[in-house]
Write a structure and sequence with these properties.
By secondary structure, the chain is mostly helical. The chain has helices at about 10-45, 50-80, 90-100, 110-115, 120-150, 155-180, 180-190, 195-200, 205-220, 225-250. Its main location: mitochondrion.
Length: about 260
């Protein structure tokens, strides 16, 4: 209560700084990989085509996670840690500096080496986001193809919007519920204050620790808010991206 109403929005700046580059990398990479892989499998191994969204989504998410992870780390810490005594929580850059500040280097190499702490918990992030993307796209693609197929050749921007939002909502809800334990493990690793211990933590040992402390309930801590956020988020991002693509294709048609 001391921190007031604005605590509910802690980490918003980091979330915005993270969302734009992540989506900017993730969605176009997924599109490119899916199209290339579908073209290859359709001609050479048609039985593998249904698995293309799973592989393309996993690869694209891995690239986006690795590229933008330091901001994700800052966002998680800003949301988890209490405000400073002055009442003003640190920003993204100050939070990241705080991650490497306790680690002193006696040489240039050691000083540069300490920046690896900005990727603390990356393994946990990948172990959550890669399965999330695999489940999400494997569920999303068939749903939206079926919905768009019902509209036939007369699909409009509204149809594209509705199909993608509905498919994204269902896929995001399912994927977020299944991967909730991995999200709990990721968060626990990211908020670990001891840098040396943080580097030694693994997703497996963290999950076992959570299980010992809280059992099944501990593994699914926060599943309600996570599902409530992920479903609409995936629906909004995918539908907006696809509608923009649809409009651009109408204005600048390419010859097949």
């Amino acid at each position: 209560m001391k921190e007031g109403f604005m605590r509910l929005w802690r980490g918003t700046s980091a979330s915005l700084a993270l969302a734009v580059p992540t989506v900017g990398i993730y969605m176009p990479c997924y599109d490119i990989l899916r199209n290339k892989m579908e073209g290859f499998t359709t001609q050479n191994a048609p039985n593998l085509t249904p698995y293309v969204p799973l592989v393309a989504g996993s690869a694209a998410r891995s690239l986006a996670c690795i590229s933008c992870y330091p901001v994700e780390l800052a966002r998680t810490r800003m949301q988890a840690f209490r405000a400073t005594q002055s009442g003003k929580p640190p920003g993204v850059w100050k939070t990241l500096l705080g991650v490497i500040h306790p680690v002193k280097g006696t040489s240039i190499f050691q000083s540069l080496h300490r920046y690896r702490f900005w990727w603390t918990g990356l393994g946990a992030q990948l172990s959550r986001d890669v399965p999330f993307s695999a489940i999400c796209w494997s569920t999303l693609e068939p749903i939206r193809k079926n919905i768009v197929g019902l509209a036939g050749d007369g699909a409009s921007a509204v149809t594209v919007l509705g199909a993608n939002f509905s498919a994204g909502f269902v896929a995001g809800t399912l994927a977020s519920a299944v991967t909730c334990p991995l999200d709990v493990a990721k968060t626990r690793r990211q908020i670990e204050k001891d840098p040396e211990r943080a580097l030694k933590m693994t997703t497996r040992t963290t999950l076992l620790e959570i299980w010992r402390d809280g059992g099944l309930r501990g593994l699914f801590t926060g599943v309600g808010p996570r599902v409530g956020r992920a479903g609409p988020s995936v629906g909004i991002v995918v539908s907006f991206y696809e509608v923009v693509k649809y409009v651009l294709q109408l204005r600048h048609p390419t010859s097949s």
